[in-house]
Amino acid sequence: xxxxxxxxxxxxxxxxxxxxxxxxxxxxxxxxxxxxxxxxxxxxxxxxxxxxxxxxxxxxxxxxxxxxxxxxxxxxxxxxxxxxxxxxxxxxxxxxxxxxxxxxxxxxxxxxxxxxxxxxxxxxxxxxxxxxxxxxxxxxxxxxxxxxxxxxxxxxxxxxxxxxxxxxxxxxxxxxxxxxx
Length: 181
Ligand code: SAM
Prior knowledge:
The chain has helices at residues 6-17, 35-43, 74-84, 104-125, 142-152, and strands at residues 25-29, 49-54, 64-68, 89-94, 126-137, 153-159, 170-178. By secondary structure, the protein is α/β, with parallel strands linked by helices.
């Protein structure tokens, strides 16, 4: 079993778009409790570098290097870059979501900000041809964010996994074929 139901969402996405083939390094942002890291670790056949990051601690997963900290914090971001030590990555995952207050006027900008930072990280660390999976909430800023992604990736698709609750505004944007501009 997996530590989080969200694991099934990632399995659907990875299988549909074959996101792990030829991949040797993955960064998972908002990784706790570790479901997505488990999926990546179990699906990988070769030696794969997996780095997870979250505000919250996780129970260790073999083969996963975990960094605890706030991704919006410059020093934490720098720790991630230092850990990579110049190694480019092939796949950046982000299931990050702020603690939802239920007030969309404050939740929406917070979640869009996390998505923007994840995209900045892609620009800095993704290998050309690499992929990005990011959780987004439909609403203010959503279309603009897709535009930004389309500028960076050859192909961008939106997926609403079967395992995602129908009423939730949550979707996943998948960028494939990172362009090194
Ligand atoms: N994909 C995970 C799994 O399968 O186990 C579940 C991720 S959960 C939906 C969202 C996570 O984003 C939470 O664990 C939360 O702590 C994390 N998060 C939210 N804001 C963050 C931030 N600024 N920096 C790091 N992690 C953050």
